[in-house]
Write a structure and sequence with these properties.
Helices cover 3% and strands 58% of the residues. It is mainly beta and 707 residues long. The chain has 6 domains: 22-51, no CATH class; 60-180, Immunoglobulins (Immunoglobulin-like, Sandwich), CATH 2.60.40; 182-300, Sandwich (Immunoglobulin-like), CATH 2.60.40.10; 305-420, Immunoglobulin-like, CATH 2.60.40; 431-540, Sandwich (Immunoglobulin-like), CATH 2.60.40.10; 545-703, Immunoglobulin-like (Sandwich), CATH 2.60.40. The strands form 11 sheets. Strands 3-5-8-7-6-9-10-4 form an 8-stranded mixed sheet. Strands 40, 41, 43, 45, 47, 48 and 49 form a 7-stranded mixed sheet that branches.
Amino acid sequence: MGASSNAVSLNLNTATAGALTGTATVAFTSQAINGSGLGTTSLGSQIVHANGAAYNLASASLGTINFGNVLVGSSVSRFLNVSNTAAPGSFSEGLDATLGTFSGTGAGLLSGSGSITNLAAGSTSTNGLSVGLNTSAAGTVAATVQVNLASNGATTSGLGITALPSQSAAISGQINAIAVVGNLASASAATPNPVNLGNVRIGAVSPTQALTISNTLVGPGEGLNASISTAAPGLTATGSFTSLQGGNADTSSLVVGMNTASAGLKNGTATITLASDGSFNSGVTTALPSQTVAVTGAVYQTAQASVLPTSPINLGSARIGGTLNQALTITNSAPNTGGFTETLGGTVTGTTGAAQTTGAISGVAQGASSNAISVGLSTGTAGAVSGSADLGFTSSAVNGSGLATIGVGSQTVNLTGAVYQSAIASALPTSVNLGTVRSGTVIDTAISLANVAPLTGGYTETLGASFGTTSAGLLGTGSVTGLAAGAPASTALSVQYTAGAAGSYSGAAAVNFNTEAVNGSGLGTLAIGSQSVGFSATVNAIANAALVHTGGFNFNSTGANSGTLNFGVLTLGSGSVQTTFDLLNNVTGLADLLNGTFDASGLGGTPFGFGGNGSFSLGDQQGSVFDLTFDTNAATGFFTANLFIDDASHNAFQTDLGLPQYDLTIQGTVNPVSSGSNAPDAGSSCLLLGLGLMGLVMASRWTRRNA
């Protein structure tokens, strides 16, 4: 009781690497002691579970080292290839290796360095173990090197380092004396150097230059290897050659050029890497001094044209003979390349339709503009006009690059516009004779005006007119707007003449004309001159009646158009007495006739009588004489009657102008003969009365003043 036993053990089979698991059943019994005779009693069983892992040890495979033929004095080393040939996977340990001792022929010329640690299964180390060869003297190497090996479980089993049997690797080689075998290659200077690739434009085929280089070696020796490269971004360097033998030259393999995809200087260098080809050194090349080649060149950006306004261009409207023109803004829109963008030139290479052009451009620098080229349309004929102008552009060299001028495309500018026919006023009369008119007469003369411009299918402007300066006595009224070509003549213009003082009249009225835009052309209103219409007339003074009392008895004016003749008081039987009047047209110079009649009908049945012409037509200062009589023999009493004078101002060109009627009242008294009186006879009385009053009546006159 209380004792233990290790007599029972449990093992896992490690014949195969990998994860291991298993179980064991342990049966227990109770056995009699002290000779109790109880026998053995089963106590049941227990299952024991076991797990673990089995790992492969690393396994080494070694290569060999063959130095081949090497030159005395050369620096020579080789790596020994070592492989871990254990099954790849997480259940194989890594391989450790180091170089041990050298043995065999030339072993003293060998030295080792480096180590390999935990080389994974299935992997090979090509640079872990290095063997150096002392080439100070010629000789032969036929030796081996001992390689110390171990299995490393640091990253796999965790079982630490397990030593493995060492292995030997064979090493061979031949060290040759230089004097016996040959010399290193020797390179001449590359030519040409420097290289000038010249000037080209963007996108051009790159200019190239092949370099010439020689192997100048004389006698036995190695061949020359060469290659060329450049770090300059604007340059290219391509090509190589190998094993160029002494005395030979390569003239085509090494080529320098430049990148023409962008503009600018392409200056830089190319490096020629040189080596002796190792043909006397078991193929191990020997670096020779490199050479640098200077390369220059330049790439230029061609000019590019940008034209404003953009096509098509509407040049608007103009009148015949006007201007439809547009200066083009042409810009050299090529990229700014820091001085390597060419200048822009341009000319008009052709036109169509009504297009007209002037000017040319040249030397327009990058980013600059020129307005030297103008395009337009002919305005010789009314209507819708159109045409096009073809522009050709060139790119010219800058910086004295020597590049020839080249074409860089063309553009077509399409043009539209409209040309309008100005209105034309019909000819107005230059002289209007108004004939003979009396003072104060107002005459309106309508002026007929038409737009006689040619019809152009909707491109003829309308006519406007108004009065300008007019002479005294004339007044222009009315105006004209929107008078279309071919429309009926307008009579909206009128000249009013008001006759002034008698005499000959001459005056003029100016009519100013405008041509007015149509179709919303925006041309506005433009003055197109004027015409002068002359007016002439003969002006008569209005006839002016004047009644002159030239003899006998008493005459008084009682108003503007009335008067009274009083024969006074006479005695019955005094006979017939009379007095005399002169009706005068009291104007001087050009004047109407004074026409009219005497209405003596009111004298009938009275003692008064009228003597003279019943009608009259009197020029200036002409008169018509008439007599009035009073018969005293018939009866006594107070008598009165009226004589009417009907008159008018008359000329041959106008309707008569009626003048106010004149009313002459005639009065007289006849008394009976007094008893015992000594009355004179009628003849004597009348004569005396007439002679007595003569001086008085000669001064009596009535004159109508006409307004």
